[in-house]
C-alpha cells in the first residue's frame, strides 16, 4: 500500500487549503490516520490524527482552524486548513498506522 499526498501550494495568510492523501488500498484497514508537518530546521510534528474509533486529535496550534476527515469510499484522508498563518509553512506528510508515510506536500503561507 502506498500513500499519495496532494493539495499543497502557496497561499496568503488567512487563506485556506485542503490537503488530500489517497491510499492505493483500503484506508480503513490501515488503522490510525494522521497528518504531520516539518518546517525547515525543525522536527516533524503531528498536526492532526484520527484514531480507529474516529476520534480526532489536534495540536494546540491548529485547533479550531484545521479539520481532519476521511472518505473511505475514495480511500482518502483530508486535512482542511483554514485561517492559515505564516507559521503553518512546512512540508505536510500523511501517515497511516504509524508506519506508512506519504511523500509530503509543501504548504507555503505568505504575508
Secondary structure elements and pairings:
Blueprint: E1 3-6, E2 9-12, E3 17-23, E4 33-38, E5 45-50, E6 56-58, E7 66-71, E8 76-81, E9 90-96, E10 100-101, E11 105-110
Parallel strand pairs: 2-11
Antiparallel strand pairs: 1-3, 3-8, 4-5, 4-9, 5-6, 7-8, 9-10, 9-11
Distance from N terminus to C terminus (CA atoms, Å) equals: 38 Å
- Tell me the structural class: mainly beta
Largest sheet: 7 strands, mixed
Q: Helix segment count?
A: 0
Mass-distribution shape: globular
The ordered H/E elements are EEEEEEEEEEE
Number of E-state strands? 11
Proportion of strand residues = over 45%
- Kindly provide the radius of gyration, computed on alpha-carbon positions and rounded to a whole number of angstroms: 13 Å
Spans of at least 5 consecutive residues with low confidence: none
Mean pLDDT rating: 95
